[in-house]
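Data deposition worksheet. Section B asks for the primary sequence of the deposited chain exactly as it was used as input, without tags or linkers unless they were present during the calculation. Section C holds the resulting structure in token form. Section D is free text for depositor observations; keep each observation to a single sentence. Incomplete worksheets are returned to the depositor.
Section A, Depositor: J.P.
Section B:
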Amino acid sequence: MIYYKENLTMALDTIMAHKFRSFLTVLGIIVGIVTVVLISSILTGARDELVSQVEDYGINNVYAFHMSMGPSRGRRSSEERKRKTLTVADAMAIKELCPSVQDVSWQEMPFGTRINISYKGKSLRSYDFMGTPFNYGSVANVRLDNGRFFTQSEDTHRLSVVVIGPGAAEAMFGDTDPIGKEILINERLFRVLGVTEKSKTSMLGGEGDNTIIIPYSTFQKMLPWNDMRILFIQSKSGMREKALEEVESLLRVRRRVKPSEDNNFELTTSDRFIQEFDSITSVVAIGVVAISSIGLLVGGIGVMNIMLVSVTERTREIGVRKAIGATKKDIILQFLLEAMTLTGVGGILGIILALAGSLLISVLVPSLPSLIPIWSVIAALTVSVVIGLVFGVWPARKAALLDPIEALRYE
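Section C:
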């Protein structure tokens, strides 16, 4: 143990004696480690936010839309754009005919229509405007910080009432309590009933900090031409997969999909959103690892080169050590430890820079999640040390094979 400690001390002394050279040697390793750790932190943070968001909607929910949903929806095909939208009648049929379904709600948003929202001349610039039935609050798990959600009677009678997000409340009302106040939506007065709890930006198009929710019947009166909605299907406890099968079968019948044809609608769950996100990020991760591997390879070659130079510079030292009894194993161990220490220090510097970068991202771009997982730190440090081990073998072997007499004569 003492022998290993002495070798490690010698390795650190050598690195400190040539600080700038050592830094340039491991620069490629530092860049590779920073890239991997920083990207993994962003992907991990984004995943945690997605998990939090889909769980906020309820783990028993199934979501239905006539086009693809989720992170990989990408550019929609012409076939998708021509599909018939899901209807309120579809929602009612699902509730009545699917035994595993507890309740059904939906949200409708003004696609392609500009909505003007203001309070006493102060316009709301960023918002998610939607019309929903009275039961949307319970099905989509909308939590209120203040006030209440609108009732079935208010929905049925097309009353001008609204539930807003905390961001919208702050933008329009500041520190004033918005409950009971009236805002203008397309020049029509709406009374504020409730304010939702503060949440992260939604990844599913639902309630966020700037949400504006009005009764569905009122929404239809304002925008009768709008006909695009997402169904929120709440299954009975522990029966989500069964509900998914029942809903799919029913919608295929209602939308006249032939047995040989694919669905002309999409059903998804919180788990599927997460799985789809994971499949996308895995591709990104492979690309990042491939790119960073170039930096690590360059760093490894640099380490091998500098260690070969070090062997040449310290030929007499090696000869002296051999002359006083050092074995080939001792010399190999000395130079391997030096190479591994060099790359290990590079890995530590890379991790520190990645941590600093992650904190900087969190400060400058709060909406971009950044969370460094402990596994990425351990993996980064392990890889950096292994690079030193692999690329230090040849220099260490070269040093061990030096003839002690010739080494002592070396000038």
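Section D:
Residues 120 and 183 are 8 Å apart (CA to CA).
The mean pLDDT is 82.
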